[in-house]
Amino acid sequence: MTPDLAPSVRPFAADSAAASGEQAGWWRSAVIYQVYVRSFADSDGDGVGDLRGIRERLPYLAGLGVDALWLTPFYASPQADGGYDVADYRAVDPLFGQLSDADDLVREAHRLGLRVIVDIVPNHTSDQHVWFQEALADRPGGTARARYHFRPGRGEDGELPPNDWESVFGGPAWTRTTDADGRPGEWYLHLFAPEQPDLNWDSPEVREEFDSVLRFWLDLGVDGFRIDVAHGMVKAPGLPDIGRTEQAKLIGAQVLPFFDQDGVHEIHRAWRKLLDSYPGERVGVAEAWAPTSERLALYVRPDELHQAFNFQFLTCDWDADAMREVIDRSLAATASVGAPTTWVLSNHDVVRHVTRYGAGDGELGRTRARAAALLMLALPGSAYVYQGEELGLPEVVDLPDEVRQDPAFFRGDGQDGLRDGCRVPLPWSGEAAPYGFGPGGSWLPQPEQWAGLSVEAQSGDPRSMLELYRSALALRRQLPGLGDGDMGWLQAPEGVLAFSRPGFVCTLNTLGAEVTLPVPGRPVLASAALEFAGGTVRIPSNSCVWWAV
Ligand code: NOJ
């Protein structure tokens, strides 16, 4: 029996601002490519990617068909957490180049029609930041300490941390300082590594400084900011105990006194005003973890940020019902505030989705990843592509311990100790490592099998992941029904998702077996080969098809 593809429910209000297209802005439909700077392209042969390397490869990104880049932190930093420990927010780390390289990169990207979003890290600084050095030298209660969270310890001699909070990277979220006379002193708060002390956003000086830093980069021409830990800048008053031992997850949705506090929204509202005071639709993107889609939507209210990463989609299992539920919830939540939804499958903090979806079977993972890419790029809103996913790179699971750099790996039970495996430098060309990454080596070793996954090896091969992404991104520009806008579910058998958009239908078979459906239109792109018979089409297992109707 072949079930029909009749329209069923519409998951969100057609009269929402998003659906009417009233607030059309580039970011509402944009595909944004995440460049993990140290692993994209190395111009000088030190084995670490840099800004010039990115600039030289911009034609590749323009040709891929993305709209914008998001660059991970390239600021002056001791690199205790891959640059998310910033010592000077206005300087480029020599590892990545100099300020003029950032300027050149932004100009050249704009010339090629690409926008540039940079990372901003406001929850914490590096412990080498001049402010933190001043704070250490200051006395308890001094003005330099007021920029951070310093507290006396508990216990008879202050030998116990001020509260029971744990660091996301494992171990207590507090480190004790040593006074000038060599005696143990106050403790300071760090939700991440000890080298990343948390700023106190109650301090007007902190707020003024970040306004100035944002202006610095906006003046240089960047198109917006990806805001690191956008849900963590404000802590519950009094820094109350949690009352249980619970390590906060980097990718999690726990209710905790240091995440998703209502006070953060005031900061984002002020930043939105600042962004809007510049021409050219500069945007703010929240890296925010909230317990529900509804709480997350608060970050993208009309007077706050433009987008928030949809991690619920990233963490969703390969299961049609679960995916449909996440899609519905995400669309409903963002529609309620008139914001576009975002879709993301991978980033520099999670196991790459080829590996996640494959659960030990590489071929299955690749097959599902092809389908997932077409699903993601057909859904309403904006999408994020993490460098290398367009090449179908798997997670590198066998890195030797001595090359690892993720701070969580070194903090005992740090749950995120596997983040290096998704950060291995990209293979561009050639038969041997570093596969055109740069004239030297690469800071993490690339697997031998990556010759076949390089940009060069995949270019022109119609069956490759790269050509699938190129085709999908080109079609996304041509087909007016894609990007921001409306969608409606179509009836489909168990395990299959089918939805329509203006002039377009997408069908996803999540099952391990093929399904037969009535042909819904003209096939324009498929993640696997289709077979037609009569008025029906056989859709292979774990595959996705785009149809023009
Ligand atoms: C989120 C970033 O994506 C991650 O890489 C970093 O370790 C933490 N924030 C802390 O800045």
TrEMBL record:
InterPro entries: GH, GH13_cat_dom, O16G_dom_2. Signal peptide: none annotated. Keywords: Hydrolase. CDD domains: AmyAc_OligoGlu_TS. It comes from the Bacteria. Belongs to the glycosyl hydrolase 13 family. This is Glycoside hydrolase family 13 protein. It comes from Streptomyces luteosporeus.
